[in-house]
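cron nightly-structures :: item 1 of 1
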Amino acid sequence: MIAEHWLATTLAVLWGVAHVTVVVRFLDSQRLSSYAPVTRGDAPPLSVVIPARNEARNIEGCLRSVLASDYPRLEVIVVDDHSEDGTGEIARRIAAEDGRVRVVNAPDLPAGWFGKQWACHTGARAATAALLCFTDADTRHGPPLLSRSVGAMRQRGADLFTVAGHQEALSFWEKVIQPFVFSILLSRYGGLESMSRSTKPLDKIANGQFILMSRSAYEAIGGHAAVKDHVAEDLRLAQLVTARGLQAHMLLARDELRTRMYTSLAEIRRGWGKNVYAAGRDTLPLNAVTARIFPWIFPLPALLPLLPLLCLALGWAGVWGTSALVFGAIAAPVTLLYFAGVYAFSRLNPLWALAYPLAAVTFSWICAEAAWRGSKVEWKGRGYVSRRAT
């Protein structure tokens, strides 16, 4: 009995150490605000490309925020990707007010291309600057975002520079699920600084909401044509940059960039469901055998935080004996405290951590649906097949 309790206690301590390690690695992440902005006289021309398909509710706010940037040499290219909700008309109205804005119509989508990649490719070809910034229409930029990002990119010697901004969560399901999902990404990649320093492509990730690249690096990896059929084009861009021996870096920019990705459970389900499985395959060194097993185990990591609660319940019911009860009694409060920190970092009341079991079950369900669909992806009225990295 003593040996069983000792083992349960040891496992619970290791559980806590694992969570503390994730937190410590993340706290090592550097912030964009610690880098000096590029000076006005030293700022290179910069082209901001905004792919937009049916973004009428977002495009004006995004454009206005980019145009309010303190960056001195700026052109903004909005690529209207066959929108049906007036996105192009809104962008053209703003372009008529500000000569820095151009609106380009995306040509018909070629076979084998994802819509966003085709729009970014179209925008890059229309851009005139040697420095390219790809940003999503649902983002909001703070005035110093571009100038500090260019400064940090130079100081760090990065060829691809990206930031992790603040993810807004306003509705019930956003508040429950979004922080939980990003905590899983955090546990996979750890601190942004360790990820930036890594020379292994599989350790790399980028945030497609904001990617800054030199045109030379962009063309060296083949641009968006090289990731035309990967649902997580941002992830693959960072991996390809690293594979060529170039530098891909990410900093925290919670005060300089904010995004509201989804507004409801239906949008969360469609949004994460479209890329979570197909992108997940590109983060692991799968072979012929593990690729077959992967769909069956893919939903399980989201349920792992529930293990202490399961042990508590089974131990209380006498199914697994007192050792399960000991493990759960120690590990469950540790897990709750960890998620209190996750939700607090997301600028929510830490009491939202009480909802993490609901988040775990819901997100696991989203992952299971995505795994069942496999490579098939649907987004904004279009169907795709996402190719796995080889």
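cron nightly-structures :: done
The chain has a mean pLDDT of 91.
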